[in-house]
Design brief:
254 residues, 2 domains, four-stranded antiparallel sheet, elongated, disordered N terminus, ten-stranded antiparallel sheet, Immunoglobulin-like, mainly beta
């Protein structure tokens, strides 16, 4: 059984109509396709298309991205990673799926092949290479989604490894009330210096405190605090009655 039967232009026009209608309603259409050359090099193509009345079809919103398996890099796991995004193929100057069942890639055109049995899957032949692709209608008001296909990105820095503990420094009794002085130790087990730490606490109502800033239900280190990496510590203290057992936790650190 063949995936595509050579269909009449009318056949693909009919199958394309739902995507053209969605595009005319200002919905973004995502193109996602593959191709393979006689030498075995695989291509992956992805891009967002919007309807253009001038072109009478759905046209690339930005240049369609093309990655190929022959562009590879040795990854950190010492395995070859194909489709290296740092070595993309040249992006087509033009990319349009026309309402008449044809497609333009760069300055070349081709007739689409389709079959009702393949749903939203289409195909075409260009320069001796068979392409297959699907079209995805993105709902309003989402617009054109991120492709996650070679765009620039940022990596969030690892969360600092910070812990908090306390110990009794001294205790005494005044007017039959026992008081305890605590040292609270904030420890940095991460690899970089930390200058800002915010903590929360339960049952915390000290009679006095130092080396710390109390702001409602949050506790912050002062501006002069700097905790060295790899086991550095910063100590602040407070006094409370012995009946008050406070528990501390780290909310944020950087």
């Amino acid at each position: 059984m063949t995936l595509f039967a050579i269909a009449s232009a009318d056949s693909c026009v009919t199958q394309l109509q739902q995507y053209i209608n969605a595009g005319q309603g200002y919905q973004c259409i995502t193109y996602s396709g593959t191709a393979i050359t006689p030498s075995g090099n695989q291509f992956a193509l992805k891009g967002n298309l919007m309807y253009s009345r001038y072109f009478d079809g759905i046209r690339q919103q930005a240049p369609v991205k093309i990655l190929q398996s022959d562009s590879y890099v040795c990854g950190s796991n010492l395995l070859n990673q194909p489709f290296d995004v740092a070595q993309p193929s040249p992006q087509p100057s033009e990319f349009v799926v026309y309402t008449n069942g044809t497609i333009q890639v760069g300055n070349k055109g081709a007739t689409l092949y389709c079959s009702a049995a393949t749903g939203n899957t289409f195909g075409f032949l260009m320069d001796g290479v068979v392409h297959t692709f699907v079209l995805i209608i993105n709902p309003l008001p989402v617009g054109c989604p991120a492709l996650h296909f070679g765009e620039s990105c940022t990596v969030a820095p690892p969360s600092p490894k910070v812990s908090v503990s306390k110990k009794v420094a001294s205790s005494w009794t005044t007017d039959n009330v026992e008081y305890v002085q605590y040292d609270v130790i904030v420890k940095n087990d991460g690899a970089s210096t930390i200058t800002q730490v915010t903590m929360t606490a339960t049952d915390f109502n000290p009679t006095s405190s130092w080396n710390v800033i109390l702001n409602g239900g949050e506790i912050s280190l002062p501006a002069y605090a700097s905790i060295a990496p790899n086991g550095g510590t910063f100590t602040w203290g407070y006094i409370s009655t012995a009946a008050q057992i406070s528990l501390f936790s780290i909310k944020s650190a950087q």
